[in-house]
Every structure is written in C-alpha cells, then in structure tokens.
Amino acid sequence: MSLAMGSAAALAALFQAPVKQSLVQLSGVDIAVIAIYFAMVIYIGFYLKSASNTSEEFFMAGREMTAWIAGLSFVSANLGSLELMGWAGSAYQYGILAVHWYWIGAIPAMLFLGIIMMPFYYISRVNSVPGYLALRFGEGARGLSAVCFAFMTVLMSGINMYSMAIVMKVVLGWNLHFSIWVSSITVAIYVALGGLRSAIYNEVLQFLLIWLGALLIPILGLIEAGGWHNLVLQIQHRFPQQDYTHLWGPLNHFTSNPMGVHWSGIVFGIGFVISFGYWTTDFLVVQRVLSAHNLRAARMAPIIGSAFKMAVPFIVILPGLLALSVLPFHLVPQDVAVASGQHSYNEVLPLMLVRYCGPGLLGLGVTALIAGFMSGMAGNVSAFATVWTYDIYGAFMNKKASDSHYVSMGRWCTFVGVIISVGTAYLVQHAASIMDYVQQLFSFFIAPLFGTVILGMLWKRASKAGGFWGLFAGTASSIGLWLWVRHDPTNIRFMIFQPHASADLINRVQAMSENLYRAMWSWTICVLVTVVVSYMTQPKPESELQGLVYGATKIPEEKDDYWYQRPIVWAGVIGAIFVGLNIIFW
Amino acid sequence: MRSHTSIWLFSGILLLTYGLLIMGTGVWELSHPLPNPPVLYDLHAPIWWGGIMTAAGLFYTIKFRSHH
User: Fold this and answer.
1) CB–CB of A453/A280 below 8 Å?
2) Contact A203, A378 (CB under 8 A)
3) Residue A308's pLDDT band (boundaries 50, 70, 90)?
4) How close, in Å, is residue A369 to chain B by CA atoms?
5) Are A359 and B41 inside 8 Å of each other by CB?
6) pLDDT by residue (tens digit) across A38-79?
7) Domains in chain B: how many in total?
C-alpha cells in the first residue's frame, strides 16, 4: 500500500538540501555485492526472453507459477523501498501503530482474496481486473478503471523512482540522475525482455535479498537492547509522554496516540476499505496471483503471501522501535532535518544499517533497498503494460491484431511506461507537491473500485449500468471530497463525524485520517449508487453470470489428498496467528 | 509447459556467491580489524551470517541444479 502519510513530500524536501556528507561509505566488497545483483537481474531478463513470445507468456507468465512463487511475488511487488524506508521512519515517529498497515491493513484482505475472490478471477480466465469488469459490467466500467489504473500506475512508479533517487543521494551520495537512469533502464530491460515471468523471477529474488539485507538489524538490535521486554522499558523511559509500544490501547481517541487516529479509522478505513481495495482489486498485485498454474495455487498464493506480509514488521517496524531505544540522538521531521542538519525519521533504516553492518553486509543492505525499489517499479510497469495492451489498446483501439503484435505492444509499452515514470520523477523534482497529490489520487479510485468488484462478485442483481455508475459516482465523490477539504480544511470535521472538533484536533487528523475517511465515504457512495441504479435497471441473465458471480458459479472441487493441503486450513492458521499477535501487542 | 531454470537455482547461486563474499570478508577482518567498527563487531556477524547464506545457497544450488 502506498504511503499516505506525507512522508513522500517530506522526502522531497530533502532534494532542496545540499548533500552534507553521505551516511554510508561503501567499500570494494559492497560495490561488488551491488554489481553482482545488477548483473543477475539483467541476465534473468535475457535468459527468459525466449519464454515470452506469446501474449499469455509475456503478460501472464504462461500461467505456470507455483503457489510459492506467485505468493512471494505478490507480496514482493508491494514491498518497495519507499515502503521499507518510509514505514521504518513512521515506526520511529508513531511507534508500533505503524504495524496496523501490515496486519489489519493487509492480512484479512489477503485471506479474503485467496478464499472468496480468487475463484472468480481465476475461473473467468480474465487477464486483468478491468478485464473482469468488462465481463461483469461491460466496456464502460472496464474503460474507466483501466484508464485510471494505467495513468496512476506510471505516475506512482515515477514517484517511487524519485524517492529512491533521493534516498540514494542522501545515504550514498549518489548523483540523482545516475540513480534514476541506471535503475529504471535496468528494470526496463528485464521486464521488456522477459515480461511478467522475468518480473516475477526477479521479485522472488528481490524478496529474498530484502530479508537477507534487513534481517540482521532487528537481530543485532534486540541483542543490543537486551530483548523485547527491555526494549519496551527503555522506550517508555526515554519517551514517557507517548505510548509507542501498544497497538490498540491508545486508539480510543484521536488525541491519545502519536498518530492522531481513532480505532474506527483503523478498522473500517485501513482494515476494510483501503486494504481490501488495494489487495483485492489493485491489478499490480492481483496480476501476480493470476499467473498461478491452477486454482489451488491461485488461492494459496495470497495466503502464503499473507504469512510473509505478517512477518515484514520484524524487518521494517522493529528497526524503527529499536532506534527509539539505542540511537544516542533523536531523529527529527524532514523539514527540521533540512534546516538543522540533523538526521530525519526517514533515515532510520540506513542509520541502523550503518550502526550494525560493516563491509559486505552493508552492501547487502544497500542492495536490499535497491531491490525493493526495483521490485516495486517492475510491478508497476508490467501491470501498466498489461492493462494498456489488453484493456485500452486491445479493447478500444485495435481489437483484431495478431498475438505477436500485442506482445510487441507490451514490450514497447514497458519502455514507454518507464519513460513516463522517469518524466514524472523529473516533474516531481521541480514541483514536490505533485507527489502528495498523486498519492492521494491513487487512493481516489481504489476504494470505489473495490465496491464495484465486490458487488459484482457477490451480488447477482448488480446490473451493467449499476456497476458503471457506482464506480463513476464513487470515484467522483472521492475527488469531490478531496477538493472540499482542500477548499476549507475544517470541512474534515464532517467526514470524521466530529462537527464541533477543535482546531488542534482537525490539524492532527488532517495528516493521517483524511484518506481513511474519504475512502470509507467514497466506497459507501459507490455501493449505494450501484444498488439503487441496479434496482432501477435490468439485471444480466443468470446464464451470462456463470464464472463471474457467487451463486451463479460452480467452483471446481479441489481434490486435496490431505486436510492440511486445503487453502481454508492455512487461511485459518494465518488468521489465528493474526488475532493472537494483535492480542499480544494490544 | 516449457522447461526453465528454476528461480530457486538463481536464488541459490546468488546466496552462495554473496555468502562466500561476506564470510570471506568477515574472516579477513579477523586479522585486519576495521578502524571504525560497527556496534557488536565482536559478534562477527559477517562470518556467521555469510556462513548461513553459503550453506543455504549451496543447498539450493545443488538441489535445483540436479533437478534441472
């Protein structure tokens, strides 16, 4: 899930600052580790080129991936470097509350995708989420969602690229243009050559590297702090005014926690609308699961991914908490850091890396950050190429081209997507506020899209017109609410059901909760409009809903030899661990 | 379905290469200590972390090379 916390804009502020002294001095061994990584990912692209000649191979990886590979790729495509660095910084700033974006903000949605939604995506044999909407609600809904998705995906990719280049500049002292061009050209080469298969292979490799590079920090950090219990005591001693170590306890009121959120925003905003919208309808991640070789693998992939997602706070959030205890100085907000020369929240992961890692391990850690960036960008670019080729070019501009023509279009699209991303990165460089706008734009259509898809899958009565107008109204209302609050920031008090909120409360809520509540409202409006319009218009005949809707679809029986091979069993295990962890850290 | 080199073989080779490189660096540092060592330097993380990576890399390389 993209950062909706303004940390991107904060990173942008760094660009204005001169590079003082880079945090990290790389040795020859570190350079070798990074160079080997680049050589490997490009080699994989060339190696897989011969296996990406048909559109099914290029865009869907031949639908040959095992549950493990699809699952790791599913979670890796989301684990960008901005995600790693930004949330580690948020953990330092807000404490353990940042974990909500990894647990309640991901696990229930991933399990829901695997158990409930995947059969419909998979049985209908669609190539994309807009492709599903085309079958269920017609070309209008497909066009609207495809254009929004394609547009936002490349913009987000550019913003991630820019943020990465900024990080490389601050951490390593690398030139901004060097970072942008070397990393984007590398991604363009391996995705254009090997298509989704190459992106997935590299995502698995990148996921492994992220863990290997980052895992030493919490291990050594816990040794230094004297274990979890001592860590909690030290944080409470150093920061007695704030509760940094409890997940749910401080969420009774907007003002009782460092984040300025209320539990309703976390549960309904993040835990339901935003997380279900992102994990079940964002094609960037769903595409990875659609590449699975059978329905069972497609259902298991998000479940396997959820187990790893649940573990990610160990390498992202825990380093932020450890920094609260072990760093001999305090980190500060980005604007203060730029003015005073101190270190900012966003530098917490590199700072911890430098604290524990010498030559070799440092190179591995930096490689992990680069790998995180590349996996996120490759995910964006490959999803863009697929949606453009299938759902815009193939659906509206050239319906009868040959298969090889579409593959060729996909390869060129990959380069075009990268070029637009680079352009966006440079655009952001000159107008940093664009970064925040685009992040919010992305959230504009995810929540209503989830409303449309979930009604399409679970409600037979939803009609073609209902689907389109629901999606349109939800998206328009999301943009309208955003403009309303931009016009007068105090309007947010109506969105959070606090019409008499104080100026201080409005200020606190502004930073964190606006996206959450806007998502809830736009989802609700989407669902209401879909229901009302559906009842006013003719539904599709049931014969046309087979394979698309619950109740009109016969889900193929999965013949598992043993009970423990069933996806529902593993979803239950993950669900139980998820509940247990929330109770332990309550 | 075509036969491709498994992703796990690529992972194994990368792990093995990195493991040997990092473990080698750790061993070299025993006789050439760093002038500005990181925190907990005396735990010799590069040696055991590199060792774990080497062992895992070796396992995956052998297992999936023979399979291929």
Assistant:
1) yes
2) yes
3) very high
4) 16
5) no
6) 999 999 889 888 888 888 888 888 888 889 999 998 888 887
7) 1
Domain of B52, in residue numbers: 7-31+42-67
Domain span holding position A45: 7-584
Residues of B in contact with A355 (CB under 8 A): 38-39
| Residue B1 belongs to some domain of the structure | no
Which of A517, A163, A196, A248 has the alpha carbon at shortest distance from A379? Answer: A196
Among the partner-chain residues B14, B17, B22, the one whose CB lies closest to the CB of A361 is B22
- Smallest Cβ–Cβ distance between B41 and the set A48, A358, A360 belongs to A358
Q: Kindly report the CATH number assigned to the domain that includes residue A339.
A: 1.20.1730.10
Owner of token pair 């990959």: A414
- A370-382 burial, b at 16+ Cβ within 10 Å, e below that, comes to bbbbbbbbbbbbb
Mean pLDDT, residues A454-477 taken together: 93
- Does residue A343 belong to any structural domain of this protein? yes
Overall number of domains in chain A? 1
Q: What is the Cα–Cα distance from A18 to A338, expressed in whole angstroms?
A: 9
Written as one string, the DSSP assignment of A139-176 is HHHHHHHHHHHHHHHHHHHHHHHHHHHHHHHHHH---H
Question: Is residue A171 a contact partner of residue A365, using CB atoms and an 8 Å limit?
Answer: no
Q: Which two tokens stand for residue B36?
A: 């500005």
Q: Is residue B57 part of a domain?
A: yes
Contact B40 A359 (CB under 8 A): no
pTM of the model: 0.86
Question: How does residue B60 score in pLDDT terms, banded at 50, 70 and 90?
Answer: very high
Residue A60 inside a domain? The answer is: yes
Positive or negative, the Cα torsion across B39, B41, B43, B49? positive
Asked if A33's CB is within 8 angstroms of B7's CB, the reply is: no
